[in-house]
Structures are given as C-alpha cells and as structure tokens.
Write a structure and sequence with these properties.
By secondary structure, the chain is α+β, with helices and mostly antiparallel strands. The protein is 17% helix and 29% strand. It has a 5-stranded antiparallel β-sheet with strand order 1-2-3-4-5. The longest helix has 10 residues. The protein is globular, with a radius of gyration of 14 Å. The relative contact order is 0.22.
Length: 114
C-alpha cells in the first residue's frame, strides 16, 4: 500500500487490527546505511518474519513513525507501533513496549488466548 500521508499510515495499522492515536508520538527520518550492520541485522530478522526486508532500502532515506497503541491485549498503556516507510511504501515495523517488562514483536496482531 502507498503510505504518503498520516491518514494512510493510520489506516494501514488499523487494517492489521491495531487501534492507534491519530497522530504519531514521534517522526524520525534517517539514512539507512549502504550495508546492514547491527542493530539493523537483528531487527531485519524480525522484519523477515512478516514479509519485510530492510536490505531493499540500503542507502535510502527512511522515515519512522511511532504511534501510541490503545488496544494491545492485556496492556492499556505504554505500547507503541513503529512503522518504517521508504519511498511511500511500508518497509518495516514493530509493536513494542519499552521498559523492564517490555517486548518487541511484529506488526501482526496477537492471537487472543482463551
């Protein structure tokens, strides 16, 4: 999907099952190195699990948009979704919760456990 503006990014995350705040908490632009090294190599392993591959964007400008997630199962606050966009296309992403009991996982919405 083309993610040229904020409403398209929010709609993309919603299409994956996430409810997020309408505006990003943070927007960051950076140049991805010509060759992936740590921490990008480890992060790219997580991305490959969900069909992304950061190596396609080496040497290019990438934007990271961080949104507050409001519907993570079992967590009412502190969860964020990071969406990485290169040339208006999603190229990586994760859902994370910083801190001592934190985690980082794919953009796939977690299965409800009964």
């Amino acid at each position: 999907p083309q993610l040229t503006d904020n409403s398209q990014r929010v709609a993309y995350l919603q299409s994956l099952g996430w409810e997020v705040a309408p505006e990003p908490l943070e927007t960051l632009q950076f140049l991805l190195p010509e060759e992936l090294a740590e921490p990008y190599l480890s992060y790219n392993e997580l991305q490959k699990e969900q069909g992304f591959d950061l190596s396609q964007c080496c040497g290019k400008q990438v934007s990271r948009f961080t949104y507050a997630v409001t519907n993570y199962p079992g967590r009412t606050q502190g969860v964020q979704a990071n969406l990485y966009v290169c040339e208006d296309l999603p190229v990586a992403g994760d859902v994370c919760c910083p801190g001592a009991d934190g985690f980082q996982t794919t953009l796939e919405f977690p299965e409800e456990t009964a």
